[in-house]
């Protein structure tokens, strides 16, 4: 099976730049959080310790989501943010 890790990593890096330039955009925040989580699907947490899994950017995804909910109007009614 082909590995798409380098593509996922490149997309995350690109979305970080887009988010930095458009920090007030709800869609961009949702896409960045989703992209971060998709790098390590079903492996965001170490189930034994309850801590973020090694190699996962779990805390960054949480920071993006919490930042949106804490500061952006409309975040609590945005389907993408609510889903993440």
How many strands appear in the DSSP assignment?
A: 0
The level of helicity is: 55-70%
Rg value = 13 Å
Strand content: under 5%
Largest sheet: none
From the structure provided, what is the oligomeric state, counting identical versus distinct chains? single chain
Low-confidence stretches: none
Tell me, briefly, the overall form.
globular
Q: Pairing-aware structural class of the strands and helices? A: mainly alpha
Distance between the termini: 27 Å
Number of helices: 4
Structure description:
By secondary structure, this protein is mostly helical. It has one domain. Helix content is 60%, strand content 0%. It is built from four helices and no strands. It has helices spanning 5-21, 26-39, 58-71, 79-83. Helix 1 (5-21) runs antiparallel to helix 2 and helix 2 (26-39) runs antiparallel to helix 3 (58-71). The longest helix is centred in the first third of the chain and has 17 residues, at 5-21. The protein is globular, with a radius of gyration of 13 Å.
Keywords for this structure?
84 residues; mainly alpha; 4 helices
Annotate the secondary structure layout:
Layout: H1 5-21, H2 26-39, H3 58-71, H4 79-83
Helix pairs in contact: 1-2, 2-3
Give a quick rundown of the structure.
The chain has 84 residues and is mostly helical. It has helices at 5-21, 26-39, 58-71, 79-83.
